[in-house]
Amino acid sequence: MDLTSDPGEHRGSPGRWCQSGAWILSFWLAVWWGVLAGLTPATPPKEIVVHRNLRYRPGENRAWQLDLAKPATQAAAGRPTVVVIHGGGWVEGSRSSFSSPDTSQPGHIEAFARAGFVAVTIDYRLSKEAPWPAALEDCRAAVDWLRQHAREYDIDPDRIGAWGNSAGGHLALLLVQWDGPLVGADAENEKQPGWRRIQAAVSDSGPVELSEQHRHGTLRGVVELLMGGPPTDDRRAAYLAASPRAHITRDTPPVLLIYGTADEQVPVASADDFVRKLAETGAPDVTYLRLAKVGHCPHSIQRVDWLPGVVTQFFQRSLGHKPQ
Hints:
Layout: H1 26-37, E1 48-55, E2 65-71, E3 79-85, H2 109-114, E4 118-122, H3 134-148, E5 155-165, H4 167-177, H5 187-190, E6 200-204, H6 210-216, H7 220-227, H8 236-241, E7 255-260, H9 268-281, E8 286-291, H10 307-318
Parallel strand pairs: 3-4, 3-5, 5-6, 6-7, 7-8
Antiparallel strand pairs: 1-2, 2-4
Helix pairs in contact: 3-4, 6-7
């Protein structure tokens, strides 16, 4: 099956697709263009407010903080919310990349707020401090905090999405796909009832299958650090649980997947396989942007110029954005 973008297209364009067999990948792109054609952008808010260093879990850990940006005006029934999760191979990175007033990184919370969303960016425990499942446990705790403080911060608790790049994309996908208990989580977490998934996610080059990522070799060291070692017998179940590919179901919420064919860290073939499995399972709302000649993280690092609008419009559609 040839899933390679036409080499005649411009770098980063959503061009044509080659077809082989019965499965037609261009279907996803056709749906995406059709949806965007019918969108009416919401009126941008005139002013936004930013809250910094909000603690989303009790305790002294510096990682358990978030920054939040929102339109200054109060919405009638709460606003859709986007959780921005930084990358860095689960070993480095900071929410400041997406909240500092001195940066204009794609995915910045102020940009989402100016589009009418409540937007937060979080820190989480990195794998040098605490291995799997600590990072996902913290991401879930941040979403729980947003739901608990929905009225205070103008949030609709039933319209929450996540955006992440690289390792953050991996965590964003797990937030939208998986509501099961976290093996190895702390005792307080394990006593909680089933976790409620979020409503949409965007992955900007997030790993989707960690055993395959380990075999690929480029990120083997950071994957082992995250998982506490290689995928040997005693860790195979944990590697499987930590892989978005293992959590594909027919009721998977809307996802937007952005990957580049020249990515030397996350093989595009793994994204191809992920999308194929989503199609076979019958997931109803999948948008796959497979960009020719583009490297790791087309949206946030390569900065393909038309992607910020695509991401904003995806969340407007999937979270039911209404002009306020």
